[in-house]
Write a structure and sequence with these properties.
single chain, mainly alpha, Four Helix Bundle (Hemerythrin (Met), subunit A), about 70% helix, about 0% strand, elongated, binds zinc ion
């Protein structure tokens, strides 16, 4: 079986990234237990919480991407686009080691992401 060049290096980067995400989520737990009877505080907490939810959503999404990239390394499928099954360029993998799609397919997905962000701006 042919071994992917540099897969172990990508794996190390992905493991570090996973630690980083897990580490940053941990100290946000206190947001969920803080309660206040002050209206201003409550509003502030609500918006903090909203922000925390958004951040957690983003982090859990990143974590999912990192975990599935690690799984693909183990299965020897790393660096193959999930959409069109074309190899993802080394340049792209170096910048985004958890990339699941080639640049072309990612752009199609990003169109949806951008729409979400616009919605978020309207809410904020
Ligand atoms: Zn593709």
């Amino acid at each position: 079986m042919m071994k992917q060049t540099g897969a172990s290096e990508y794996k190390a980067v992905l493991m570090a990234r996973r630690e980083e995400i897990l580490g940053s989520s941990r100290h946000r737990e206190d947001i969920w237990i803080v309660q206040s009877h002050d209206l201003i505080d409550t509003i502030q907490l609500a918006s903090d919480r909203e922000f925390a939810i958004r951040t957690l959503e983003r982090e859990s999404k990143s974590l999912m991407q990192v975990n599935s990239a690690l799984k693909r390394i183990d299965h020897g499928e790393f660096g193959i686009c999930l959409e069109c099954e074309e190899p993802i360029s080394d340049k792209r993998l170096t910048a985004v080691p958890w990339a699941a799609y080639c640049l072309h397919c990612q752009e199609l997905h990003d169109t949806h992401e951008t729409a979400d962000d616009h919605e978020l701006q309207l809410v904020g």
